[in-house]
Amino acid sequence: MKLLKDGRLTADIWQRLADDAPIPATGAIIVPLARLEAEAPDLLRRRGPVGLVLRNSETVEAVVPHLHSLSLIVLEFPKFTDGRAYSQARLLRERHRYVGELRASGEVLPDQFLFMQRCGFDAVETCCVAAEEAWRAAHRRFSVFYQPAGDGRQTIAAFRSQSARLGLDQ
Amino acid sequence: MYRYDSLDQTFVEERVAQFREQVARRLSGELSEDEFKPLRLTNGLYLQLHAYMLRVAIPYGTLSSTQLRMLAAISRRYDRGYGHFTTRQNIQFNWIKLEDAPDALADLARVQMHALQTSGNCIRNVTADQWAGVAADEIEDPRIYAELIRQWSSLHPEFSFLPRKFKIAVTGSPNDRAAVRVHDIGLRMHRKKNGEVGFEVIVGGGLGRTPMIGKTICDFLPKRDLLSYLEAILRTYNLAGRRDNLYKSRIKILVHDIGAQEMARRVEAEWSEIRHSALELQPGTVEAIAAHFATPRYDASAEAVHAVERRRFTDPEFARWLTSNLAAHRHPAYAIVNLSLKPSGAPPGDASAAQMEAVADLAERFSFGEIRVTHEQNLVLPHVARRDLCEVYDELRRIGFATPNLGKIGDIIACPGLDYCSLANARSIPIAQRISTRFADIARQHEIGDLKIKISGCINACGHHHVGHIGILGVDKGGEEFYQITVGGSADENAALGTIIGPAVAADKVVETVEKLVNTYLALRREGERFIDTWRRLGSSAFKEGLREAA
Q1: Pairing, β B379-385 against β B413-414
Q2: How far is it, in rounded angstroms, from Cα B385 to Cα B337?
Q3: Domain residues for A110?
Q4: What are phi and psi of B210, to 5 degrees?
Q5: Using the beta-carbon criterion (under 8 Å), do A142 and B278 form an inter-chain contact?
Q6: CA torsion sign, B220 to A149 to B145 to A138?
Q7: Is residue A166 part of a domain?
Q8: Over chain B (551 residues), what is each successive 10-residue block's mean pLDDT?
Q9: C-alpha dihedral over B549, B433, B89, B368, to 10 degrees?
Q10: Any idea what the CATH number is for the domain that residue A12 is in?
């Protein structure tokens, strides 16, 4: 599995902590929501960034009190057909203004990169062979978008009202 | 009609390019069938019993003559010279080769069409009243809003992997011809006393294995809030809908499990966060789309109908056609002409390339170049001047689309069934053919009156059997095709699910059973009562008795 961050293959410095593993004094660690809730003071006292892996069945609202202390949130795709993480991603980015790394993990297919980019993911764990190229291709594939989403791309509706104001024809 | 601007056009062309590249990766072996499957499905390409099937979206059932001509051309170029109109206002081509699919989609894009989201667990092709914009009883043209929904739902980044497929229907009339109570979301326009028009929002209706009538979660949604409210429903469903069991993953199960009130509360809570976002519809946006659906320039002097009236008295077949296949147009000099794709003994909903081209010609000459596709698998010429009715009728007769049986027992809905579909338990089309052959006598069909028969080849209910006045469901009994009969269903504003009327019958007993039900009705009906009215008055016992007696 490789980590693609902002479209580039990157070394993964993060360590996923097993449920019963002791908290290491340093280093970047990823914990589940239950541990974050139970051990927040210990986690924040240590040196090194804290990340969270949020299950599909857990709510984004539960994360909100901890958002300021998180540098990474991992959302899961247990199967590529399970699209809950797209909603979780948009809520984190658009409603709760989360600005840290938002990573897609699990069954992540290159043909879904565009949807992920649009929903606010900036990192994916992937086994795709030409992952960087696939990420760039997804970025280029479409030049027009109907929905307002977290990526800030201008929508077709916005283009239209702009052109209408300028008296242009499409 | 809606015309793409350069942005819409760019979008579909980029989509075709993407699919072309995906097909190339499949053909070269880079993608396995498993990896390719979700990609082809979101482009409407299914693998059926014998070949690939391409399902093309006809958004809210509106087609131009140019588009219909292209559908005919595609059926000649890549298929066997015919297409099948479905119960979802789509058209299917049953014999497509994988390597041809990108070219077929490119041809569609040339006439502003696509096969986007006609499959997969996403928001499917949005459907609407087939008489939108012309029906005399209409409050407002629902296609304006259906088009907004089409655009909003096209490759929606958040809602392309929902728990299950998702169908939205819109009606602008109090008489519901879009079956809004049996969709995942049904939108029914209505006008408040102060004149303001908005939507009643119905969620959680559906057919399939667990049929349910939808529940109203919002009595009046202002039009400007349509997309934000839909997004709130979809987000609620995407996060909370079940994903552990394919058969329990539609939104109807969620609504049933948590209750309509709780669903309304959750949607309302989500909506309050996004109501005043970029999704809020601006008057300019709506007006720009509405302008596409402006009424054509009707000729007010088109009322010279003496020839039509004379012929009514001399040609009984024509007179019946006027009675059953025409509907009231909002302009008194015009009529809505319904084409029956149900000649007796033929597969419901099929049209050959030549027939499609002939309909396109007729539309150009007599209907401002516009055609509609109905969820009852028929076609419509929506604006025909009454003075042209004789000419239109003669041409429709020539091509076999003038059977005067609209809404009658011969106007049967049927899914493709075991003849094509890999999910089916039993054949549907031959059953429809047998029934329509038995009742081929048009005078008898008119004597029986309005009666909707709907046939599905399996529990997935693509033939809407639950809401047929008489519903027929194909089941497998020890390897043999059997059919379960229900009575009393309805898909209109008084939506109801049918009741099972006895044990399933063998294929060769279906016609007999239908005939007994019809005879029971004929014996018991009161003046002016339709089949469904008699059923509602008397209930199942009278009809069960009818089945026994005649046996």
Answers
A1: unpaired
A2: 10
A3: 2-143
A4: -125, 85
A5: no
A6: negative
A7: no
A8: 96 96 94 88 87 94 98 97 93 94 97 95 96 95 97 97 97 94 96 96 94 97 98 98 95 98 98 96 92 91 78 95 96 95 91 98 98 96 96 98 97 92 92 96 96 95 95 94 96 93 95 96 96 96 87 51
A9: -120
A10: 3.20.20.70
3-class secondary-structure state, position B152: helix
CB contact under 8 A, A114 and B157: yes
Number of domains chain B contains: 4
A149 assigned to some structural domain: no
Q: Considering the domain boundaries, does residue B97 fall inside one?
A: yes
Residue B149's nearest CA partner among B231, B77, B233, B222 is B231
pLDDT at B38: 86
Q: Which two tokens stand for residue B501?
A: 């009327």
Query: Which phi and psi angles does B516 have, rounded to 5°?
Result: -65, -40
Residue B37 lies in a domain: yes
Between A and B, how many residue pairs show a Cβ–Cβ distance under 8 A? Answer: 98
Q: Specify the residue for token string 């096209």.
A: B154
Q: Is A157 on the interface with B (CB under 8 A)?
A: yes
Q: Evaluate whether residue B370 is within a structural domain.
A: yes
Q: What angle, rounded to 10 degrees, do the helices at B510-524 and B531-538 form? A: 80
Give the torsion sign (CA, B478, B48, A82, B214). Answer: negative
Cα separation values, B371 from B150, B171, B378, B402, Å: 19, 18, 11, 15
CB-based contact (8 Å) between A164 and chain B?
yes
Query: For residues B247 and A135, what is the distance between their CA atoms, to the nearest angstrom?
Result: 35
Q: B284 with B168, same domain? A: yes
pLDDT at B405: 96
What are the tokens at B11? 């979008």
B174: containing domain: 134-292
Residues B205 and B250 in one domain: yes
Q: Is pLDDT of A170 > 70?
A: no
Tell me the whole-structure pTM to 2 decimals. Answer: 0.95
- The edge-to-edge listing of strands for the beta sheet with A123-126 is A8-10, A2-5, A123-126, A101-106, A70-77, A50-54, A28-32, A14-16
Rounded CA-CA distance B36/A110 in Å is 12
Verify whether the Cβ–Cβ distance A160 to B39 is below 8 Å.
no
Judged by CB atoms closer than 8 Å, whether chains meet at B278 and A159 is answered as: no
Q: Cα B302 from chain centroid?
A: 31
As given in the structure block, the two tokens for residue A124 are: 């994916």
Q: Do both B287 and B151 map to the same domain?
A: yes
CB of B511 within 8 A of CB of B435?
yes
Count of beta carbons in the 10 Å neighbourhood of residue B163:
26
The number of distinct structural domains making up chain A is 1
End residue of a domain, out of B50, B76, B110:
B110
**CATH number assigned to the domain comprising residue B257:** 3.30.413.10
Q: Locate B200 and state its tokens.
A: 């009643």
- Asked if the structure places residue A159 within a domain, the reply is no
CA–CA separation, B396 and B366 (whole Å)? 12
The ipTM of this complex is: 0.96
When scoring B37, B155, B161 by the number of chain A Cβ atoms within 10 A, the one with the most, hence best to mutate, is B161
Query: Side chain identity at B215, as an amino acid letter?
Result: K
A81 in B contact zone (CB under 8 Å): yes
B121 vs A81: CB contact, 8 Å cut-off? yes
CA distance B321 to chain A (A): 44
The token pair that represents A19 in the structure block: 């449920």
Grade residue A169 by pLDDT with cuts at 50, 70 and 90.
low
Q: Which site among A64, A79, A86, A114 would you substitute to test the B interface, given the most B Cβ atoms closer than 10 Å to its Cβ?
A: A86
Together in a domain, B157 and B288: yes
A contacts of B10 (beta carbons < 8 Å) = 143-144
Do B239 and B315 lie in one domain? The reply is no
Among B416, B459, B472, which residue's Cα sits nearest to residue B55?
Answer: B416
**Domain-embedded: residue A32:** yes
Q: Is B14 close to A142, i.e. CB distance below 8 A? A: yes
> What does the block give as tokens for A26?
């340093």
